[in-house]
Each structure stands twice: as C-alpha cells, then as structure tokens.
Amino acid sequence: MQVKELVSFLNQIAPFTYQESYDNSGLLVGDSTAEITGVVVALDCIESVIDEAILHGANVVLTHHPIIFRGLKRITGANYVERTVLKAIKNEINLIAIHTNLDNVHFGVNHIISDKLGLTNVKILNPKAATNYKLAVFAPETHANLIRESMAKAGAGYIGSYDSCSFTSSGEGRFRPDSDAVPFIGKAGELEVVKEVKIEVIVSEHAVSAVLEAMKVTHPYEEIAHDIIGLTNTNEYIGSGMIGQLDQEMEVMEFLNFVKKTFHCGSIRYTNPTKSMVKTIAVCGGAGSFLLKDAIRAKADVFITGDFKYHEFFDAENHLMIADIGHFESEQYTSEWLVAQLNKKFTTFAVRLTSVNTNPINYL
C-alpha cells in the first residue's frame, strides 16, 4: 500500500477541492510512492508525534491541522514547525493533513461534534454555493444505460443521501460525417438522423475529471456532444458549521455541564444565557466566530465553538449564548473518527491513535 493510495482515500471522504483557499491540506512532506509501514493519527503534528511514529515503526503521520500552513522560506530548526518537518524528513516520515476539507463535508468534523452532543436533524449551518456542475451528454439509445452506469461509478449523480441520480430525455440527433471521419453510425457525406437521448447528471467539483473520462470510455461516438455547466445552486451538504436539535430540551446550565463533561473541557467561556431551556444547537469545530451571524440567523439557542476573542462575545447581542469550549476540545474526536475510517478501509498496515496530548493549553 503506497502513500498515494491513502491520500486518494482521504480525497474520497473529504475531497481536497473543498478546502478553503488559505488552507494547505494533502501530502505536505514525503514520497507519494513510499510503502506504508504504519499510520499515527493526531489532531496536531508536533515533534513528539513524530517521535511516536518512529517508536512504532510508522512512516505516516495523519493530522487534522497542517504543520506547514503559512509557508516556509527556510528549514533550519529555528522553531517547532521547522524542527518537526526536519525530523520527519530525516526519518522518512510522510506528513498528511486533512483540514478544512474535513470541516466542510457533511459527515466531517462538525457532524462528529453533533453526534457527541446527540443532535438530530442536523444540517450544514453555512452551505457553500457553486460546488456542483451539471454534465449533459448526448448518446444513442443503445448505449444510454452503459454510459449512465459508468458515470455513476465514477462519482456522478450524488444528491444528498441518493446516488445514481440522472435525468434522460429523448430526441433526434443529426450529423453528417466528412471524408476523414470514422463514424459509429452513418456514412461519410450523408446526413444521418439517429434516435438519441440526453443524459443529465450532477457532478461534484472533485469528480468532474473522473466522470468525464468514464463517459468518454463508454461512449461509442468518435466526437461526443456534451456540456459541462457550472451551477450556482447552494450545496446543502458542503459548507461550514452544523446545526441540529437535542432530543429534549435541557436546562441551560445542565446542558453546559453536559458539554463540559463530554468534551473534557478545562473550562467553558460563555455569554449570558438568553433562555432557561435550550434545544437548537449550532456547532463549529475549531475557530468558529465567523459563523456567529449564521447561528443567530438559524435561531440557535447555543453556539458551540472555540477561539472567540473578547470583543466578539459582545456580538451575540443576546440573540443566543456563545459557548467557547476551546479549539482542541471541539476537534479532539476527529482523530478517533479518522482511525475508524482507516481501519474499515485498510488492513495491510497498523493505524494508531496518538497517545500524545497535543493541546498546547493548560487550565488551572
């Protein structure tokens, strides 16, 4: 099993095209053709995690946060980032990050948080637009099923909890091959009229190339008439944050204590409660203050996230209660989830959840 196969799998569960423009997910250090001897999974990539990988004979460290984030102009060991990268290179440890792309997919970081809270009817808090395309292809009726099936296998036709979605309409196709053509149907110089179908499918941005290739391989025509149209529709399954409901209302302080216990918080910073009982909960793993207006608009009772600045707490304006549980605390279960996904998929190498507490913050 090569490193690139692991990266490909990660791209399936959280396509790297969904990472934010400022992010740096993917294979950051290493050799994509290297054989995997073991994987250590952690939230953060620091020196002690590299040491752990070396100790257990693992040559891959998979983390949520990328160790190389703002770019490096030199690697001299002057700080923890440079020392970590140097140690990884010296010991042939491959470093992979799966960051905001995992934040932005439906079953990613925020779904993990929602599951821990027992939320139901969850949905993306701030869905993204323009992440889908529509592919329309014209083909003879005889090959319609084959083309539909091949495109579906390549990733076309996913709409929420449904797959293999498509729409087919019938009509006539007209064409005249010239003397250099090698037509599947018809003769050079003669106008041909053929019963054809138009197959339309939704294709996510990351799957466009694979779907196009699958369509072309199975299509019988020498020249294939097709359209790829960018959609501005909002994609309800891709985006930031998540919102859902508790099964039953909880008294606000009882809920905060439940959150503190569930996420092992050293403390929770929170604004004045606006309700005595809470039910609708918005969440965002990591630093989520940018979603406060979305949480208010969605009429959340509580917004759980991390890294709120002092003045940002005022922005709640008594519309909801902000509960800052900490960056590490909100995302800590991401590593367990990744371990579970890798263990389900791969059996040729060991996957180990780090024993290192990478949280740089202590509480008194």
Automatic annotation (TrEMBL):
Domain of life: Bacteria
Keyword terms of this UniProt record: Metal-binding
UniProt GO MF annotations: metal ion binding
One Pfam family linked to the record: DUF34_NIF3
A GO CC term attached to the entry: cytoplasm
Sequence positions that bind a divalent metal cation 2: H64
Matching NCBIfam families: YbgI_SA1388 (TIGR00486)
Similarity-based family: Belongs to the GTP cyclohydrolase I type 2/NIF3 family.
Quaternary context: Homohexamer.
UniProt name for this protein: GTP cyclohydrolase 1 type 2 homolog
Taxonomic lineage from the root: Bacteria, Pseudomonadati, Bacteroidota, Flavobacteriia, Flavobacteriales
